[in-house]
Design goal:
The structure holds 2 protein chains of 2 kinds. Chain A is mainly alpha-helical. Chain A contains 10 helices and 1 strand, in the order H-H-H-H-H-E-H-H-H-H-H. Chain A folds into 2 domains: about 70 residues, Orthogonal Bundle (Cytochrome Bc1 Complex, Chain D, domain 2); about 80 residues, Cytochrome c-like domain (Cytochrome Bc1 Complex, Chain D, domain 2). Helix content of chain A is about 40%, strand content about 0%. In chain A, helix 2 crosses helix 5, helix 4 packs across helix 5 and helix 7 crosses helix 10. Chain B is mainly beta. Among the domains of chain B are: about 130 residues, Sulfite Oxidase, Chain A, domain 2; about 110 residues, Immunoglobulin-like (Sandwich). Classes of the chains: A mainly alpha, B mainly beta. At the A-B interface, helix 3, helix 4, strand 1 and helix 6 of A face strand 1 and strand 2 of B. Strand 1 of chain A pairs antiparallel with strand 1 of chain B, so a sheet runs across the interface.
């Protein structure tokens, strides 16, 4: 399928994104010192599409395909529960949880009309997960890949590549889809920004990751 | 190369029999998720006993691990001797082939109201295949179960995206694990089990929902208790007593999903089809996780009268049969059919499905409407 959708995170320190989204880095808008309960709260304004989509990209799409979100038709209470669960499962949505749930329930609420799955060619679907030829990404050096990974990837994907801010990269089918893997790194996915890795470095990183179990 | 040829043959057969499809069109699945893949079988395939592998639904929580035929399965826990077995080791055990339907617990979730979160399947989260492999009981016997073993924990090589996401693990009671129809399969529809469908090894538990048919199997662990963890203790639960639609149910009011309930689905005519006046044929599949199908009835007058359909294929627990009902409609205009099934334990497919918080086991009467032209 699309390289950008591949379930392959990779390689990178997401410096800018982390600053914006780390749970402690943004003041929480509700705190105990604020006066409350003496007036009915006004309905919060709708979240604009650009803000909403940025939150979806940053906090949902590293792990989920977009259509998983689009097919839901959930109430505000249901979306809040889903977002809260994802926060406990490692999404860095943190203080924006309420805003994201509000955006999702406005956009994908019970009244949002029908959603229909798209047709997917069976042959393409099979090919989307099977190994591809390594081509220019063949013959990587695992020791060099280990060094590159430690310097560029480990901060998000974990020292053991098992996932942290970024996703797990151990024992993934996509490690044997070298071109797609490299394209994912270069294009970015979810919170991961594009990273211009060379073919040689990508080959080395792949050689390193493939040996992990 | 061999695999590719075989695939093309199966796919070709699928094209030839798919009604109303030009011969050159590709077989298609319905995409509920691109990565990880969540793919449904189109309803038009529910007119036959075997679902072709290329269009057989695909579902997993985390997507496939790397394809590795040398992956082994370890039998451990409350056993006399821990054993680690390769696919080739398993081939020394007696080989068994059996047909069984595989159905996602959440199949039909998209049809439930009030709506609940999860994959919004219509009907396509199921399929029937022939599964070839070895009996799980023969594998367990190699390790020797200790008498205190009561549950078998099943785990695959797929990993969650982050360490903060729970691992996927299910357990089945030892009695079901030792049942002669519970298999570790390495072939599906006569070909090596595809990566998407859990290859090299997956569990087959006829009659039980798909969450027990663990894919990419690596670990069979015998324990005194059922598996711990989110996917056993929190997910895949249904209310013990019928819940008020749209309301939460406390954990103590829930039980694990096991067998899927009786259900029939009409594969043909398709909703909205146009069919020439004269003979009309309603074809579908009927299955129950608790017993063989007793009968399927079809109504063409919105439930006022019901007619027995003929059944094709062998009956059994978790095994679907094709039903067929023919009638003549000469006048042009709307035609409808509703199907309902009963299994041999007397379970009747209900007019309306029972709502539950996770949207499992939707099995309401299926109704289609088409135009006679």
């Amino acid at each position: 399928m699309r390289a950008a959708l591949a379930f392959v995170g990779a390689v990178i320190l997401v410096a800018g994104c982390r600053e914006k989204t780390a749970p402690q880095s943004t003041p929480v808008s509700i705190d105990a010192s604020q006066p409350a309960l003496d007036a009915a709260p006004a309905a919060p304004p709708p979240v604009d599409a650009a803000t909403g989509e940025l939150m979806v990209t940053n906090h949902c799409l590293s792990c989920h395909s977009r259509e998983i979100i689009e097919q839901q038709r959930l109430t505000s209470a249901q979306w809040s529960k889903v977002v809260a669960k994802m926060a406990t499962w490692g999404s860095l949505i943190g203080p924006d949880s309420e805003k994201l749930a509000r955006y999702l329930s406005d956009r994908y609420g019970p009244q949002s009309g029908p959603w229909r799955p798209k047709s997917s060619d069976a042959n393409e679907a099979r090919k989307a997960i099977e190994p591809t030829k390594d081509g220019p990404l063949a013959g990587g050096n695992a020791a060099l890949g280990k060094g590159y990974f430690a310097a560029n990837c480990a901060v998000c994907h974990g020292a053991d590549a098992g996932g942290l801010v970024g996703v797990n990269l151990v024992d993934r089918a996509q490690l044997f889809r070298a071109t797609e893997f490299a394209n994912s790194v270069r294009t970015g996915r979810g919170l991961m920004p594009p990273h211009p890795i060379t073919d040689r470095d990508a080959a080395n990183v792949l050689a390193y990751l493939r040996a992990l179990r | 190369m061999l695999q590719r040829r075989a695939f093309l043959q199966v796919a070709g057969a699928a094209f030839a029999t798919a009604l109303g499809r030009p011969a050159f069109s590709a077989a298609e699945l319905l995409r509920y998720g691109a990565s990880p893949q969540q793919l449904a079988t189109p309803i038009s395939y529910f007119d036959r006993l075997i679902t072709p592998t290329p269009v057989f639904f695909v579902r997993s929580h985390f997507g496939p691990p790397s394809y590795d035929r040398s992956r082994t399965v370890t039998v451990h826990g409350l056993v006399k001797k821990k054993v680690e077995l390769s696919v080739d080791d398993l081939r020394h055990l007696p080989e068994v082939t059996q047909t069984a339907a595989l159905q996602c617990a959440g199949n039909g979730r998209g049809l439930i109201t009030p709506r609940v979160p999860g994959i919004q399947w219509d009907h396509g989260g199921m399929g029937q295949a022939t599964w070839t492999g070895v009996r799980l009981k023969d594998v367990i016997a190699l390790a020797g179960a200790k008498s205190e073993a009561r549950h078998v924990w099943l785990k695959g090589a797929d990993r969650p995206p982050k360490p903060t996401v729970p691992e996927y693990q299910r357990s089945i009671p030892i009695e079901r694990a030792l049942h002669p129809e519970t298999l570790i399969a390495y072939r599906m529809n006569g070909e090596p089990l595809t990566h998407a469908h859990g290859g090299p090894l997956r569990v087959v538990v006829p009659g039980w929902a798909g969450d027990h048919w663990v894919k990419w199997l690596t670990s069979v662990q015998l324990e005194a208790e059922e598996a711990s963890g989110f996917y056993m203790q929190t997910a895949y639960k249904i209310p013990i007593k019928q819940a008020i639609p749209g309301t939460p149910v406390p954990p103590e009011g829930m039980r694990s999903v096991t067998t899927f309930p009786v259900k029939s689905v009409i594969g043909r005519p398709l909703d909205g089809a146009q069919i020439a006046a004269g003979p009309q044929e309603v074809v579908g599949v009927a299955l129950s996780g608790d017993a063989a199908i007793e009968f399927v009835e079809v109504s063409t007058d919105n439930g006022a009268t019901w007619h027995r359909a003929t059944l094709e294929g062998a009956g059994g627990i978790g095994l679907w049969q094709v039903f067929r009902y023919r009638f003549v409609q000469k006048q042009r205009g709307e035609a409808t059919a509703i199907a309902r099934a009963r299994d041999k334990k007397g379970n009747m497919q209900p007019e309306n499905a029972i709502w539950n918080p996770s949207g499992y086991f939707w099995n309401a009467w299926h109704r289609v409407q088409w135009q006679v032209v």
